[in-house]
């Protein structure tokens, strides 16, 4: 459609560089606007005809997606890790914006999913909980680092207990080091309090979503893991099959082959054993992978997972591969239950290996 406009945007903190192509691939507009919703919307409204717009997944991507989607026919937030064509030729804001528009026109972009408003609050609360959890762990590591740097062993978690802090602080002879440790202990106490608040708010919000009550019926998918799944997946209908969910969660098997064919006589034939390497896909959602792998590790010693895992190992599958298979099984169960709106029932599932 020649009247259609293909808009590529190279978005930065202060400005967004815009390139607009028509249906014939000709540049009809190149401009720079402020990275503000009002300025970008005015530009889109200025352009006539159907409009497609694309920009890369960055910090501002979610905000920009919500701001412009009502003013264009299609928004594609593209995966920057797959835009290898942007590295060819000149590198700069204007060339990048034009390349994005050209890739959009050619249909060569792969979009990043952005969920609907229904789970937006849960998503933000989950991010807040994860951030505070990471900050808490980092502070704990810094505390142990002070002791380790002075040859003081700190086994277990007693070094973090409030009742034993005076004992541990007594190991420091230097006043400056003791003060640093005191500040870190105060920071740890404050972060732990905030983390509890964030956890409570996240769990309360997750109860508003029926999917969490369904997922919680699956062994090892408790309230926290269920909330993380709902906030990440948003809707199970994003994934038509369990294989798509496995790939998204970093549990998909990827095979790389080479030298698949050979010449025998005057014919080209396929090798019986071509050179191949197999492994897990490296482009995945880390949160989901941690959830399903953690569920598999935690459930390896309880039913109904233990019998399934034992059956895999009896077939000669290595322990780590058996746990991976169990993680894939749990992911498939979660997807099925969520789609069907049923609670977990081990009798309805095939646990045969």
Q: Would you mind describing this structure in some detail?
A:
There is one protein chain. The protein is an alpha/beta fold and 353 residues long. It is built from 12 helices and 9 strands. The strands form 3 sheets. A 5-stranded mixed sheet has the order 3-2-1-4-5. A two-stranded antiparallel ribbon has the order 6-9. Helix 4 (120-148) crosses helix 8. The chain is globular. It starts with a strand and ends in a 13-residue tail after the last helix. The model has no long low-confidence stretch (mean pLDDT 91).
Q: Layout of helices and strands, plus pairs?
A:
Layout: E1 5-11, E2 15-21, E3 27-34, H1 37-46, E4 51-56, H2 61-68, E5 74-78, H3 93-106, H4 120-148, H5 165-169, H6 175-206, H7 210-215, H8 223-233, H9 242-248, E6 253-258, E7 261-264, E8 267-270, E9 275-280, H10 286-298, H11 305-314, H12 319-340
Parallel strand pairs: 1-4, 4-5
Antiparallel strand pairs: 1-2, 2-3, 6-9, 7-8
Helix pairs in contact: 4-6, 4-8, 6-8, 9-12, 10-12, 11-12
């Amino acid at each position: 459609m020649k009247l259609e406009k293909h808009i590529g945007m190279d978005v930065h903190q202060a400005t967004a560089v815009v390139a607009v192509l028509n249906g014939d691939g000709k540049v009809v507009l190149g401009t720079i606007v402020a990275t503000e919703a009002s300025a970008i919307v005015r530009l889109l409204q200025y352009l006539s005809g159907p409009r497609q717009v694309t920009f890369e997944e960055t910090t501002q991507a979610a905000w920009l997606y919500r701001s412009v989607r009502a003013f264009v026919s299609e928004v594609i937030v593209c995966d920057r890790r797959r835009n290898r064509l942007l590295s060819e030729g000149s590198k700069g804001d204007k060339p990048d914006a034009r390349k994005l528009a050209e890739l959009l026109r050619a249909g060569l972009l792969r979009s990043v999913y952005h969920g609907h408003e229904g789970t937006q609050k849960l998503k933000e609360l989950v991010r807040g909980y994860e951030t505070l959890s990471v900050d808490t762990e980092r502070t704990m590591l810094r505390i142990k680092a002070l002791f380790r740097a002075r040859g003081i062993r700190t086994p277990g978690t007693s070094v973090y207990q409030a009742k034993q802090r005076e004992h541990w602080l007594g190991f420091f002879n230097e006043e400056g080091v003791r003060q640093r440790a005191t500040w870190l202990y105060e920071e740890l106490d404050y972060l732990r309090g905030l983390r509890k608040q964030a956890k409570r708010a996240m769990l309360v919000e997750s109860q508003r979503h029926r999917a969490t009550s369904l997922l919680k019926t699956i062994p090892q998918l408790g309230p926290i893991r269920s909330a993380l799944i709902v906030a990440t997946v948003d809707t199970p209908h994003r994934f038509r099959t369990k294989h798509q969910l496995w790939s998204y969660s970093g549990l998909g098997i990827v095979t790389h082959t080479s030298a698949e064919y050979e010449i025998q006589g005057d014919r080209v034939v396929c090798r019986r054993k071509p050179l191949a390497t197999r492994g897990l896909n490296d482009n995945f959602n880390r949160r989901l992978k941690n959830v399903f792998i953690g569920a598999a590790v935690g459930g390896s010693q309880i039913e109904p997972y233990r019998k399934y895992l034992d059956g895999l190992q009896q077939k000669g599958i290595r322990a780590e591969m058996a746990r991976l298979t169990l993680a894939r099984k749990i992911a498939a169960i979660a997807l099925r239950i969520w789609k069907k709106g049923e609670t977990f029932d081990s009798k309805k599932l095939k646990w045969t290996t």
